[in-house]
Design goal:
The protein is α/β, with parallel strands linked by helices. 45% of the residues lie in helices and 14% in strands. It has 14 helices and 18 strands. This is T-cell activation inhibitor, mitochondrial. InterPro entries: DUF4460, DUF4461, TCAIM.
């Protein structure tokens, strides 16, 4: 959502041969120290700090870039000898610690706003309010007012023409239309995407061939990645795996029939997949591979605990957020189930056998709240009491089924629209970014299908398109567009 804030302050008065002036009354600008700014924005920094987005590299990159630009804007406001800065449009992904029930939660919400104020206190307030963060603590700030003339000067348009300085009113107008249209963006960045894609094609083929070769040589069932890493990263990881297999052939007996998952940490996940941390050395990988047979008992206990929990919960399925790339370790999953057995599942079954067999539950730590996701899946903290769990699920079971059915229909519709969109545009593929709601992907594809055939859309022919929340071109040549693109 684009939020236009207070107007730019006029430039300071100075000698100018232009004879005509328009004078308006205004108070001096409120100002605070750099330390006060940091303290006042502490809730904001906590909500957008890139370190909290380790599993979301694209959102992390957006926040890092936006923070650099925002800090530069704030520094310019604290320099009294500097003219009012130009409008700044930024986008942040804000962590949502307690999202509303209707949120399809990936743990963050995209927020866009434009800063136009020359007042530091007003800017701090606008940043917090734009991200829906509290502003009550600003009342206690030690605000000092910088001296300003009683009648600040607003120069005539010819002043800016004569001096070459930028007109704040014109800059404000440009800020309102700063986001490019889809066509303009494709015309500008399409050639770059096509060039990168062509350069990546041989490596893509080599990576797929190496993956199949390793699966056959090591007897692996599959090799997967937790996130959409670039093809160069995948190539490096596969070659590292190949070297480990050649240097330690005794590992083959432990790898046969297993699924390897490249992720952030090494170990064995709740599905029995062997996780290889992308930043770990071979020592950690070997430890994870050798640990798998020793975890057979833990995995057996985990399956038994899951069966007991399902019986207690009326046959409801215990789901993972993404069952194909789960990074939840087997030990942690078992610990969660044991903790839940001590809290909510100590007594008799909470529901009749099979009464909830069509519902799904995600078990989370004690930091989350008991809620129904928009997808129709229950998110359950393992420390929930039996009464609270029984009452909440029973009271929302009908709504959960309705949401699940709607989600399934919407997912099928979104996939069909993405396929149709790829065929119509001649694109190699159109996909939604991980965490993007199916409704957003469907809406984007519908709008693309309504576009008339235009020269700039021909730039998508043969391209890989990812529907996200912002514009970008990946190193592999994938075209990333926001689902709410402007026509």
């Amino acid at each position: 959502m684009l939020k236009h804030l207070s107007a730019l302050s006029a430039p300071t008065a100075g000698w100018c041969p232009v004879p005509r002036l328009a004078v308006v009354a205004r108070r001096g600008l409120a100002n605070i120290s750099a330390t006060d700014v940091t303290n006042a924005l502490r809730p904001f920094y906590f909500a957008v700090h890139p370190d909290f987005f380790g599993q979301h590299p694209r959102e992390r990159a957006v926040n890092e870039s936006s923070l650099k630009r925002l800090n530069g804007y704030l520094e310019s406001l604290q320099r009294p000898d500097t003219r009012a800065p130009h409008p700044l449009h930024v986008t942040f992904y804000v962590r949502t610690t307690q999202p509303p029930p209707a949120t399809i939660s990936a743990g963050f919400t995209p927020v866009s706003f434009t800063l136009l104020s020359g007042d530091l206190v007003a800017t701090v307030r606008d940043i917090l309010s734009s991200c829906r963060l509290p502003t009550q603590h600003l009342a206690g700030l030690n605000v000092r007012h910088s001296p300003a003339p009683d009648r600040p000067i607003k120069w005539d348009k010819t002043f800016y023409t004569f001096t070459g300085q930028k007109d704040p009113d014109e800059e404000m107008r440009k800020a309102k239309v700063a986001e490019p249209t889809l066509g303009a963006w494709l015309q500008r960045h399409g050639p770059t995407a096509a060039e990168r894609l062509q350069k990546s094609l041989p490596l893509r083929t080599a990576v797929q061939r190496l993956k199949e070769e390793l699966c056959q040589r090591m007897g692996l069932q599959d090799i997967r990645w937790q996130r959409q890493w670039g093809v160069a990263h995948k190539n490096s990881q596969l070659h590292s795996l190949s070297r480990m297999g050649q240097q330690f052939p005794q590992l083959a007996q432990h790898l046969k029939g297993q699924t390897l998952l490249f992720t952030d940490q090494s170990g064995v996940n709740a599905l029995g997949h062997i996780m290889l941390g992308i930043t770990d050395v071979h020592h950690h990988w070997i430890k994870a591979v050798e640990e798998h047979p020793r975890l057979a008992m833990v995995l057996a206990q985990l399956r038994a605990a899951e069966d007991r929990a399902r019986r207690m919960l009326g046959g409801a399925s215990l789901a993972q957020r993404d069952p194909n790339v789960s990074g939840l370790s087997a030990h942690r999953a078992l610990a969660r189930l044991n903790l839940m057995r001590e809290s909510a599942l100590r007594g008799p079954p909470l529901f009749l056998p099979g009464s909830l067999r069509d519902l799904r539950l995600i078990l989370e730590g004690s930091e989350c709240s008991l809620r129904l996701l928009e997808s129709g899946v229950f998110e359950v903290p393992v420390t929930s009491s039996a009464d609270a769990l029984q009452m909440f699920i029973a009271g929302n079971a009908r709504e959960a089924r309705a949401r699940m059915n709607a989600t399934q229909r919407l997912e099928a519709e979104a996939l069909a629209l993405a396929k149709e969109c790829a065929e119509r545009l001649g694109a190699h593929r159109v996909r939604g970014e991980a965490g993007l709601p199916p409704a957003a992907l469907a809406e984007c594809c519908r709008r693309l299908l309504l576009l008339p055939t235009a020269p700039h859309l021909s730039g998508l022919r043969g391209m890989r398109v990812c529907v996200s929340r912002y514009y970008s071109v990946s190193q592999d040549g994938e075209v990333v567009i926001p689902w709410q693109w402007r026509g």
